[in-house]
Design goal:
86 residues
Length: 86
């Protein structure tokens, strides 16, 4: 699995498809439900983190003051380049 929001979205829809599969036995469905619960928990945390990062980026973009971000909130492109250079 890749790590972009689009990949997460694809995985969530794939999990929904798995849960709708009528050919699954009760045991297989129970396993899929456990996987879906685990994936939902992880996805929720990823989405919250991404929302927080976006809010930070918007606050920095809308700020007239110079802002020093902590390292964990530094914004980088997928290629690793810092998006907000000092």
């Amino acid at each position: 699995m890749k790590n972009s929001p689009s990949d997460l979205n694809d995985r969530l829809f794939e999990m929904m498809d798995n849960l709708r599969d009528k050919s699954l036995s009760d045991e297989q469905l129970a396993k899929e439900i456990k996987r879906a619960i685990a994936l939902n928990s992880i996805a929720s945390n990823i989405i919250k983190h991404n929302a927080s990062t976006l809010k930070t980026a918007l606050a920095v973009a809308n700020s007239l003051a110079e802002v020093q971000l902590p390292p964990m909130l530094e914004l980088t492109s997928q290629k690793g380049k810092k998006l907000l250079e000092e």
